[in-house]
Amino acid sequence: MHLVTPTLGRNPLTMLRTILGFIGLPGGYPAHEIQALKDAQESVEERIEYVRIQSTMPQTLAYGFTTWITRLDIQVTLRLVR
């Protein structure tokens, strides 16, 4: 699902209805549609936080594979030296 945030330049009527709906005034979107927008916004924010956390930690599989290759290389080198 692709959400496009309404702006005054793109679609002023949609922007006005969204603002009226959030405030709760007549002419705006119904409460259940506003709640769906809020839920979608929270979902997007949670996904952004997840990506932010994952970007700061090493990927477990990649990290394990790299250390495994390094250990294998050391073992082969030691056997060749002996």
Task: Describe what you observe in this structure.
This protein is mainly α and 82 residues long. It has one domain (12-81). The chain has helices at 12-23, 31-56, 60-81. The termini are far apart.
Structure summarized in a few sentences:
The protein is an all-alpha fold and 82 residues long. It has three helices and no strands.
Strand content: under 5%
Residue ranges: pLDDT <50 for 5 or more in a row?
none
User: What gap, in angstroms, lies between the N and C termini?
Assistant: 61 Å
Mean pLDDT: 77
Kindly state the number of beta strands: 0
What can be said about the biggest beta sheet?
none
Please describe the topology of this protein.
Elements: H1 12-23, H2 31-56, H3 60-81
Features:
single chain, 82 residues, mainly alpha, 0% strand
